[in-house]
Amino acid sequence: MPEPPPTSHEPADATPQLALGAAGDRVAAPVEGADGEVPVLSHPDEASTPERHTESVMLDVHPAHHAASTWREFFIHIATIVLGLIIAVGLEQTVEYFHHRHQIAETREALRSERELNRKVMQQLVAEFRLRTTVMQANLADFHYLQQHPGAPIDRLPTTINWHNNPGQFNESVWTTAQQGQILTLFPPEEVRAYGRLYRALETASGSLAAWRAASSEARAYTVDVSSPSALTPAEIQEQIRLTRDVLNRLYRFGSDLGNIAAAYPDFAYGLTREEVLRVVHESVDDRNAMEAGEKALEKAAQSSEKSEP
Predict the structure, then answer these.
(1) How far apart are CA 203 and CA 173, in angstroms?
(2) Choosing a second label site near 121 at 20 to 30 A (CA), which of 47, 82, 104, 259?
(3) Are 114 and 171 in contact (CB under 8 A)?
């Protein structure tokens, strides 16, 4: 009796078994078609491994704090905010305080250096005032001699006419820069007033110095036309006498301003006295004191009369 054909333990429509791929992954075995042929893959990638999904990383987000449910929690919350603001403002003010202190220290040092520089300029200008006073008085004597001896040769003049001067000048750049900014508002008011008084005195002296030099330039203008003062006409000599007197008057004004600085600031004195300045205009200290006392008396009388009027 013939043996029955072996029966399969798997159903006819069971899924085809998986074969091992080149990389060791399991892939579906090829299935024959109706005509017994095995379909060919168009591209090797069609037999790629299944997609592998990676788990996304979750962020740990804390829930927001719950609203204050009691008055105590509410006031704690407000106090925390206020304390934070106070700390922030305090830190800002502290930074500003030290910044301002640094600015003040820098400005003070710059003003101190400029004051020291101006002291040296004062020393030069006092020496210049003394020298130019003597020279201008000698120039005036020469022109008076030429007026009395028209055409006299230059070697017969009492002295040599000289119009030169030195270019010294007070410095005010640091003070001007400080005034243009806001730094002086951080200084004590009395300190600012003290600086202001000094620089006003220096500015006044600088103005009279410029006026003297301008008068001196005008007086020497004749040197452009003639090589010797002996060639001047009597009318020109008379004009030179007038111009030289104007130079001396400007020098007297300049010396008075230097004297005011020396009287107010002893470290700027350099031996310049009021008597020395008054000699430029041939005036004694006693005469000047008497004149000033009379002016003050008249001013006081005028003020008294104004108060007595209804």
Answers:
(1) 12
(2) 104
(3) yes
- Distance in angstroms (rounded) separating the CA atoms of residues 294 and 162: 39
Residue that has been written with the tokens 């003597």 in this structure: 134
pTM for this predicted structure: 0.65
Q: Among candidates 60, 24, 66, 21, which has minimal Cα distance to 41?
A: 21
How many Cβ atoms from other residues are within 10 Å of residue 238's Cβ?
14
Map tokens 């007038």 to a residue: 242
Q: What is the pLDDT of residues 62-113, one digit of tens each?
A: 444 566 678 887 788 888 888 888 888 887 777 776 666 888 999 999 999 9
Q: Yes or no: say if 254 and 214 are a contact pair by the CB < 8 Å rule.
A: no
Bridge partner residues of 206 (DSSP): none
Q: Give the 3-state DSSP-derived string for 224-287, with helices as H, strands as E and coil as C.
A: HCCCCHHHCCHHHHHHHHHHHHHHHHHHHHHHHHHHHHHHHCHHHCCCCCHHHHHHHHCCCHHH
CA distance 19 to 25: 8
DSSP state string for 153-180: -GGGSSS-------------HHHHHHHH
